[in-house]
Design a protein that fits this description.
Order of helices and strands of chain A: EEEHEEEHEHEEE
CATH topology of the largest domain in chain B: Aconitase, domain 3
Shape of chain A: globular
Distance between the termini of chain A: 7 Å
Largest sheet of chain A: 8 strands, mixed
Structural class of chain B: alpha/beta
Shape of chain B: globular
Largest interface: A-B, 22 and 22 residues
Radius of gyration of chain A: 13 Å
CATH architecture of the largest domain in chain B: 2-Layer Sandwich
Largest sheet of chain B: 5 strands, parallel
Strand order of the largest sheet of chain A: 1-10-9-3-6-7-8-2
CATH architecture of chain A: 3-Layer(bba) Sandwich
Strand content of chain A: 25-35%
Number of domains of chain A: 1
Order of helices and strands of chain B: HHEEHEHEHEHEEHEHEEHEHEHHEEHEH
CATH class of chain A: Alpha Beta
Number of helices of chain B: 14
CATH superfamily of chain A: Phosphohistidine domain
Structural class of chain A: alpha/beta
Number of strands of chain A: 10
Oligomer: heterodimer
CATH class of the largest domain in chain B: Alpha Beta
Number of domains of chain B: 3
Strand content of chain B: 5-15%
Helix content of chain B: 40-55%
CATH superfamily of the largest domain in chain B: Aconitase, domain 3
Radius of gyration of chain B: 21 Å
Distance between the termini of chain B: 61 Å
Amino acid sequence: MDLKGRKIYKGIASGEAIVTTQGISFFGGVDPESGIVVEKDHELEGQSISDKVLVFSTGKGSTVGSYTMYQMKKGNNAPLAIINETIDTIIAVGCIISEIPCVDKIDISKIKTGQRVTVDGTNGIVKIEE
Amino acid sequence: MKLTSKEQDMLDGKYGKATQKSMEILATLGDIYEAEEMIEIKSVQISGVSYANLDEAGLDFLNEMAIDGKARVLTTLNPAGMDRDNWQALGIDENFAMNQNRVIDAFAKMGVITTCTCTPYLIGNLPHYGQHVAWAESSAVCFCNSVIGAYTNREGGPSALASSLTGRTPKYGYHLEENRHGEILFEIKTPIKGTNMFGVLGKVIGDKLGEYKKKIPYITGISKATVEELKSFCASVATYGGTALFHMENITPEASKYPIPTEKKIEINTKDIERGLTELIDEDIEVDFVSIGCPHASIEEISQVAKLLEGKKVTKEFWITTGRPTKKIADEAGYTKIIEEAGAKFAADTCCVVAPIKGRFKGIVVDSAKACYYGRAKNKFKVKIATIEDCVNEAIK
């Protein structure tokens, strides 16, 4: 199945999806050393987002979060790609400076954790493999 | 979004890597917020300077941008995590100081003026009415839009840096006149005086804006206000209400330009203000720290503190946080000598919100509603808001 969204940052990446309908704050909410979500009571608390296609509603929290994403990329444990319902400044800037393919305006209820998906950031398309 | 040929060249990498990355950020933000074009800006204020917030990640990014990035417009910096000269006396550890200096060096390499203050408008980064700028730092953004009447969105650290290195920002949000109208009317029915009470008013209005999901208050009933009172109000209403712009009848320059909103009217009376004040005073506070200068103290405020402290001795840790240029004026005017002889300390370049002081103190007395918010949330202090006079009295008690 193909979902058409909006290009945020270019590039193509495929991997296993990890999905939450909640917002994510990279600054304080994700441990950049391990890639594990540490925000208390978050749906993804305790799970790693490294080397996955991270699917969530929108970014939240401090603008420093863009730098946290950059740090994860440099440490080779950033998400492979990001899919948002609605992009915000923190995640958009984080994807650009870290060069992580990113698409938004996607109905994320169509994607399930564990599915293999391909994000084509250049054309704003998400492919779900059945 | 439409780019000029120069902007397109920046995006294509003809002006170097840092400029290209910056233009990528701005063009993407422009697309997200549906800007039609870029606008040239007059100045930039960058946030995200304290090493405590940036960490190695932020520093790595800044160093990468500093390889070939240069500020194209006047650019100043937000407070750092320490006083760059006096950090040892303020109890900052050596490792932190070294890392903080690495951050400041990276900015300096890009031609950013390393003033480290949240009140750039007091030290020479002062746009004129109607000019477009790209500022981060919520209190300065609010002051810039509302009190000066210059135009800025509420930028973050990376987007402000991108604007500095390109001299551009996408034209959306508060850069468009159609988005600057007051949305909700506040009639103030009680006299407001002093930096502390303007801070309380900012909290009362900010809390109400949250309830009604509005951002731009139009305020009537304030007959006069000083720069210091407005600075305090801006910091507070931005902290509690996320406000980047307000209009105040007979006080701010755009108040007469836009109609008074009629849809929704809220009266603020003495009781509301008293309740707001009570909410900024914790019970059972054990005071061991006093601070003036959130946002950074003006020379007028420093002069007031000097007069109150003359010939006295403080019994508690007392910081006056300010920009270094303002501190230099205080040195020349003799205020620094009076203040330091009383045992109080200057903390230039930094402030109680960004310095790594969590756990060092139990209770803080301040004249700022913003400092109360971060004292509680970030540093886990008990807090009390008071007039400047009472802050000094508490320090010498």
